[in-house]
Amino acid sequence: MPLVAQVRNNFGPTSRRRTVAVGVDFLVVAGGGGAGNRYYTPGAGGGGFLSSVTTSGGGAAALPAVQSPLGESLTVVVGAGGSRGGFVGANSQFHTQTAIGGGGSPGQTGGSGAGNSGAGTSGQGYPGGVGGASGGGGAAAAGTSGSHGGAGQAGGSGATTAISGSNATYAGGGGGHGYWANSAPGGPGGAGGGGAGGAGQGPNGTPGGTNTGGGGGGVDGNGPNHLGGIGGSGIVYLRWPESLNITVGAGLTGSAGPTSGGYKRYQFTAGSGNVSFT
Q1: Is the pTM of this model over 0.90?
Q2: pLDDT band for position 7 (50/70/90)?
Q3: Which of the four, 25, 36, 62, 142, has the lowest number of CB atoms within 10 Å?
Q4: Do residues 186 and 175 lie in contact, with contact meaning Cβ atoms separated by under 8 Å?
């Protein structure tokens, strides 16, 4: 829980307290990985998930709130999703906390790993499943394993947090492809914005959800309708004691969240820049 640090100034018969620092709770989710194009593409991995309010990705404990002197500039970066073609998602950051972009498929390492055995990052996400039709890893579960030749498998589930005042799930893995020769179905994306895999002889893999960090869905085939899903962009969400205010610098896109439970909130959905608290 964020704390407001105070010092007492004693001058004669009266004294007063002056706030000097603030603890800021955070959710930092990186961009999800993009899935590869054309043949035998598994699901991409969800973006790394870091939280001071609930469990972080990969089953890690919640992190401590960021402690900031009042007026100090703190960096915020919101990572873009990875492009189709198997590109890794971009990192997201709040001050010293950096979430790693999701692994592009097939098989790349990331915050959560892509299908076909991509490794996840410790404390941020899980690995992708094993095999060519496997799902990408999510923040709360590994992708389901599956071999090429049948139905695509599910992406791993993302992780849930209530930093906004209500539950929301982020960083699900992308679903694996369905086999083109028998028009097998693609695998579902993991909860938290994971894109569904394309069916054999069917459409492109589904993109990861915007501002969820979900991994893109895989695909199998050759042609303009056989492209992997783009990774979902990440998000940075902050909350702090309601007695203080935030200043948002240039270069960031976002909006204020609800004030409730003793907290103010702000979500950042794109860009990079600095914030401070007073």
Answers
A1: yes
A2: very low
A3: 62
A4: yes
Per-residue pLDDT at 233: 98
* 10 residue type, one letter: N
Length of the chain equals 278
CA-based R_g, the chain, Å = 20
Strands 14-29 and 235-241: antiparallel
Q: For residue 230, which amino acid is it?
A: I
Query: Tokens for 30?
Result: 């990186």
Q: Which residues of 98-114 are buried (b: 16+ CB within 10 A; e: fewer)?
A: bbbbbbbbbbbbbbbbb
Cα(175)–Cα(183) distance, rounded to whole angstroms? Answer: 16
Give the separation between CA 89 and CA 143, rounded to whole angstroms.
17
Angle at CA of residue 267, ends 188 and 172, nearest 5°: 15
Query: How far is CA 201 from each of CA 37, 207, 222, 223, 276, rounded to the nearest angstrom?
Result: 13, 18, 9, 10, 51
What is the residue whose two structure tokens read 């893109």? 216
In angstroms, the CA 90 to CA 231 distance is 10
Which of 123, 32, 132, 122 has its CA nearest to residue 78? 32
User: What is the distance between the alpha carbons of residues 194 and 277, in angstroms, rounded to a whole number?
Assistant: 34
